[in-house]
Amino acid sequence: LNPRYKEPYIVGSWIMSLEAGRPDMAIRLLQKGAKNMPEQWIFDYESGFYAFKNLKDYKLAEKFFNKAAANPEAPSHVQRKSAHMVYMRNDLQAAYRMWIDIYKNAKDRMTRDAAHHHLFQIKFEMDKKNLEQQILKYKEKYKRFPHSLELLKKTGYIQSVPTDMDGHNYIYNSKTGKVNAQKEFRWKKSY
């Protein structure tokens, strides 16, 4: 076979992953294609997909998606996959910066909406973590949960009461000390 014929690498990777249950072999085959045709973004993209979906190796998936996104011929959704992998491995600060960049440079509504939804969820997760840490500190001192998030501000545990990306207040349960958003995007479910 011609080593520069794209389809055998793609179809072969499907067979290796789906029928043989060997996503690691699929990635190896795709990377052989990437080596023989470095101008093709699809091999790294597909490798990233297998690393994400089958291996649950978000760092490896991020590496492949970054490599694919660096190709000037790659479509815009490839960069979104890379940012999503950073989010999936819980590097919220870095993911937030990446999604801000995607949002600012979006050329279409779908990209802008996807970025907004990710930014919404990431901001919520960062705010939730900080608020719930401060709620626990308050509980340690006063032996009860604060009756409101505003009380955390009044007692100096937080400087201001954060809101979600759309300016809505978070939902606080004073019986459990848990914070939730009015809406939530659940991308970290098990696949």
Break the fold down into its secondary structure elements and pairings.
Blueprint: H1 6-19, H2 23-36, H3 42-53, H4 58-69, H5 76-88, H6 92-104, H7 109-142, H8 149-154, E1 171-173, E2 178-180
Antiparallel strand pairs: 1-2
Helix pairs in contact: 1-2, 2-3, 3-4, 4-5, 5-6, 5-7, 6-7
Walk me through the structure.
- The chain is mainly alpha-helical and 191 residues long.
- 62% of the residues lie in helices and 3% in strands.
- It is built from eight helices and two strands.
- The chain has helices spanning 6-19, 23-36, 42-53, 58-69, 76-88, 92-104, 109-142, 149-154; strands at 171-173, 178-180.
- The chain has a two-stranded antiparallel sheet.
- A hairpin with a 4-residue loop joins β1 and β2 (178-180).
- It is elongated, with a radius of gyration of 21 Å.
- The model has no long low-confidence stretch (mean pLDDT 94).
Per the principal axes of the C-alpha atoms, what is the gross shape? elongated
Biggest β-sheet: count, sense, barrel?
2 strands, antiparallel
Calculate Rg over CA atoms. 21 Å
Poorly predicted regions are none
Main sheet: strand order: 1-2
Helix content: 55-70%
Average per-residue pLDDT, rounded, comes to 94
Task: Please give the alpha-carbon distance between the first and last residues.
Answer: 35 Å
- Number of H- or I-type helical stretches: 8
Number of strands: 2
Kindly estimate the percentage of residues that lie in beta strands according to DSSP.
under 5%
What's the order of the H and E elements? HHHHHHHHEE
Summing up helix and strand content along with how strands pair, one would put the structural category as mainly alpha
